[in-house]
Amino acid sequence: MKRLFLGMMAVWLASALWAQNWDIDLLHKVNGWDGRFVRNYNKVISRSESYVAFGVPVAMIVAGWLRQDENLQKDALYVGTSVAGAFVVAYGMKYLADRERPYDRWPGRVHAYSRGDSPSFPSGHTTTAFALATSLSITYPKWYVIAPSALWACSVGVMRMNEGVHYPSDVLAGAVVGAGCAVVNVYVNRWLNKWLFGERRPAARR
Which of 2, 20, 66, 204 yields a CA-CA distance of 20 to 30 A from 9? Predict the structure, then answer.
């Protein structure tokens, strides 16, 4: 986790030193996408992120408890801690990097369709979306899980740029942090399963 954090800080520092032009140029293009479909799709995807990212593991743990299904409970633990861990890492990085939101830095080039109350880097929405998508894909490696999960996570990242609240580098870093936390958490959950269930099996079934 420490290496992952240092790697993401290196990405941000590189972006700050040499990537500002491509970052704002690409954001300007994506932010310019407009139309009824884009605006409606944007609203659905952006607003769904917190409900889906945190609702899915909660639904899994409730279903596992009602069915007395220990495997489902383990899966829910893995998915839920992946999302929660990614959320904590992302917001810690936000306040360490303290990057200004693009609509504040470039008011003449970026239109804010919504606003955030935290620093820009990395994208928190994208981080938790990719943590959920990656942990679900590891747990249930079927195309009908992987494809919609990946599409939804990527849509969250793109729509955050379309809203003008994140740079492309914010979204890219969020995707890497979220996916990385889910992968690292496979090994963390081996210890959690042993502690909670008295077994050595990992939460994620391969």
Answer: 204
Please, what is the Cα angle at 205 between 89 and 59, to 5 degrees?
65
Coil, strand or helix: which one is 47? Answer: helix
Q: Could you read off the pLDDT of 17-73 as tens digits, one per residue?
A: 445 688 888 999 998 888 888 888 888 887 788 899 999 999 999 999 999 988 898
- Residue in 158, 137, 143 with CA at minimum distance from that of residue 56: 137
Domain boundaries, the chain: 2-13+36-197
Phi-psi region of 55 (alpha: psi -120 to 50; beta: other; left: phi over 0): alpha
Backbone angles phi and psi of 47, in degrees to 5: -75, -20
Fold of 2-13+36-197: Vanadium-containing Chloroperoxidase; domain 2 (1.10.606)
Predicted TM-score of the model (pTM)? 0.83
Q: For residues 127 and 174, what is the distance between their CA atoms, to the nearest angstrom?
A: 4
